[in-house]
Predict the structure.
Amino acid sequence: MPDTDERRPRVLTGDRPTGPLHLGHLVGSLRARVAMQDEHTSFVLIADLHALATRSDRDSIERMHEHVRSIVADLLAAGIDPDETTLYLQSAVPAVYDLAVLLQMITPRRRLERLPSLAVMARDARLADDEVTMGLLGYPVLQAADILMARAELVPVGADNVERVELARTLAETFNERYEPIFPLPAPRVATVPALPGVETVPGGMRRKMSKSLGNAVYLSDPPDVVRDKLRTLCRLDGLAPDDQPLAAFVHAFLPSDEADETARAFAEGRLSEAAVLDRVVEAVEAELAPIRERRAAVEQDPDRIDEVLVDGTIRARDVAYATLEDVRRAMGLATFWDQAVEAAHARSRRRKTPFGPPS
Amino acid sequence: MPDTDERRPRVLTGDRPTGPLHLGHLVGSLRARVAMQDEHTSFVLIADLHALATRSDRDSIERMHEHVRSIVADLLAAGIDPDETTLYLQSAVPAVYDLAVLLQMITPRRRLERLPSLAVMARDARLADDEVTMGLLGYPVLQAADILMARAELVPVGADNVERVELARTLAETFNERYEPIFPLPAPRVATVPALPGVETVPGGMRRKMSKSLGNAVYLSDPPDVVRDKLRTLCRLDGLAPDDQPLAAFVHAFLPSDEADETARAFAEGRLSEAAVLDRVVEAVEAELAPIRERRAAVEQDPDRIDEVLVDGTIRARDVAYATLEDVRRAMGLATFWDQAVEAAHARSRRRKTPFGPPS
């Protein structure tokens, strides 16, 4: 059972189940999540509803669910400890939908339309203007519902998602002011690590951020020889300064920082060959992947554990979400009215059942 | 317990709890609802969530809840029979929120933006452009969730709301095609009765449709002398053809149709004085209001009955809504995935509990 000690800061992160996790996730997010889980009350959501905002046909939903299990396996392998972290499936927490609808009532529509990241999502999903759904426009409100239902104070995100956390913060402020102060104000924690570039498994792969959809990713679940072969496609790029070389990014991302600085300098000054640097990167990545691979093997020995972790975490998340929703409904006056109606209805029913009581 | 016989057509209507019901509601909607309830499986929702889309401050919510009880009293007084009709409070049916969020995923945003009635609602609520909420834009999807959760086939509406039922129909078609055919296609039934004009309690009151916000309404809960005084403000308007006179509208709305035609003709031809027509209208309205007033007195003798009717109806509506949501989640593949995860989790837990079973 995760510690829900109120004095621990509450942190929420999540993944859209669009594919397996890769080294970019490891460097940009997973290490920090694993490091934080001991000192924080930690929530990790598998954002399957969010994935529906851009693709909601039946086949996409089925593919998405295959990814859910592989992502949970990746998270467990990477060191997310379900005894410390509430790992849950967004679509199976009913109160999140209620919160989203109620938050929509206090969300200015223009504020959503101005979010640049929505246009980016529509473009990435190759949606024509008339294919953009209300669900996509409402996506940041759903994200705010996730953040606020967990009463998260810290939301580690990439720079492109800061505006979403800021929206959640504005909605928390609006709610606290208009009704009752029930929400802590969530703050984004922007990753200080630069985004990891991809590998050259596709032409130009090194020139873009590592990403499943670009085909330039090294997956946590790749076997050692695949990892090695993919990493060995990294090479010096003409026209880039030494510090901007993708290989230098891998050096900084995977070697201990003292050694990384020294190695990068030696590489830049030509004292170290590309092949030597590559050997050291492969070795360092392998050193980090080895225990991940070991934990993944254990998970694969016992695949039902994936389901158990997800179901247990989701049931815990439901309790948290219901408690928040109850506070929200009480603060807005919705629960008060309903509770009074139920009380009056019960009183009348009790009177009817009392043979010598007052007439009903 | 209302008849949920599947062969009876399912009909849904609703009221936003913004004020007490008046003669315009009686003529335009209540008579038909009461007449339909015996031959239909009938749902009447009190749309308190819809009211939040334009006004969500705490005071407005409190005022709204006072109106909820007065509207239920009006509906019971008008002859809505809670043994025939499921009368329920929208905000207290959790599955409606879930359905709304899922339907947003298949609703093109542009289709919502093109609905003229949204601009009208924003104008009527005196909302500046930057005060329009996501909730208002999503309002028609929430309405579709109400209609589809009840699997309504018939939705009696005013002409200005036809486009909303058509949106619900499109969403039902899209859902049935994309996933599984679980929804009957709802059809609007547009009132054939012309809208009742107001009374002249305010200058120009007769020239507008009867409406609470215009101050030109005769309420079902008005006492007889108030009804009489308000009706007696009706008079011949200069510059209007005899058939377009507001008084003629009251004649057609409240006198039996044979008598109405003859009375209107005699009035138009000057064979009947304004005072004589007015007397007959007052008499006819009173004849219709008398039993309504009697039922209202009974309700007021036993105010907890209002709560009991609302709570019982809402609990019935919840069952209907959960059943629909379950079908929706199954059709989309969301329930299938979750059910399998729960089953696998249980299997693992059972194995752990079996001391001589297979290792866990």
Notes: The first strand of chain B starts at residue 10 and ends at 15. Residues 304-332 of chain B form the longest helix (29 residues).
